[in-house]
Amino acid sequence: MHISDILAQPQPSISFEFFPPKTEKAAASLFDTIRELELLSPSFVSVTYGAGGSTRDLTHQLVLKILQETSIPAVPHLTCVCHEEADIDGILARYAESGVGTILALRGDPPRDRPDYDRTADAFRYAADLVRHIRGFNQSGQHPGGGFGIGVAGFPEGHPETPNRMAEMDHLKAKVEAGADYICTQLFFDNHDFFDFRDRCALAGIEVPIVAGIMPITTATGMVRMAELAAGARFPAKLLRTLNGHENDQERFAAAGIEYATAQCQELIAQGVDGLHFYTLNKSGATKQIAVELQLGGTG
Q1: 201: containing domain
Q2: Based on the structure, what is the number of domains in the chain?
Q3: CATH number reported for the structural domain that contains residue 22 in this entry
Q4: Active site residue 17
Q5: I need a labelling partner for 230 at 20 to 30 A (CA). Which of 132, 160, 213, 279 fits?
Q6: Are 162 and 190 spatial neighbours (Cβ–Cβ below 8 Å)?
């Protein structure tokens, strides 16, 4: 089933994001997590791609394992940075041969050890260019399944490198016009940001489904790390008030964070969200609790 058909279902889609593990122990633990979440009948799962393609092989291996050993469609991330056109074509050919049906096309970031990387050697400067190239690959007939569905990223709180929100929407529209089938948003903690983003997309003539990115906060240290990793992430007073006073009680802190994320998802569903995409950090507990509480996926 094409990703557009998946997202056109009456109920919102439910999906999860994982990152490739670097050790055998971590890989075994992750696959236990994936097996648990498979019971929720997710619409798809996505697998991240390290900065500059640093996890290229690990990403492909995890995607292949998911496709071969579970019933879940796997969506690999693919980025532009540090890639020549031949690199991208080779990756697309491998994914097509492996039965991958959808790719999340991103600009990406340079590796941390190369912050001054010169991008003039990259074949594709922006995600819209990569989307256009994937469309060309589809039209070439090289995909046995008829072509890849394509997702792109959206930023309800604003892109950290594009303070001009009107220009940001222009960039997003360019990705959609290049051939994107859906938008998956960066995480956010205030639904007003998402609803405003969705309304601005509609005003700009962007009509593809928009999947909301959700991150349950379950540890105080994880919250600090998320503030560092997700540049510009806003923690609204309502969330801080929910978590306040539980910093030294791990169980209560996690319960409060899950309660907040559950209420956030409940409101999004009530307002007709196309899908919920959970940033799991390779763990199942919080996501599973939210899915069961709201009878998402195969829990109803």
Answers
A1: 3-291
A2: 1
A3: 3.20.20.220
A4: yes
A5: 132
A6: no
C-alpha to C-alpha distances, 75 to 15, 80, 103, nearest whole angstrom: 10, 16, 5
Q: Is residue 220 part of a domain?
A: yes
One of 17, 38, 157, 168 is an active-site residue; which one? 17
Longest Cα–Cα distance in the chain: 58
Residue 300 lies in a domain: no
Does residue 298 fall inside a structural domain?
no
In a domain, residue 274? The reply is: yes
User: Judging by DSSP bridges, how do beta strands 102-106 and 74-79 pair with one another?
Assistant: parallel
Per-residue pLDDT of the chain (300 residues; tens, 9 = 90+): 899 999 999 999 999 999 998 888 999 999 999 999 999 999 999 999 876 666 678 899 999 999 999 999 999 999 998 889 999 999 999 999 999 999 999 998 777 777 677 777 788 999 999 999 999 999 999 999 899 999 999 999 988 777 778 889 999 999 999 999 999 999 999 999 999 999 999 999 999 999 999 999 999 888 877 766 665 678 999 999 999 999 889 999 999 999 999 999 999 999 999 999 999 989 989 999 999 999 887 765
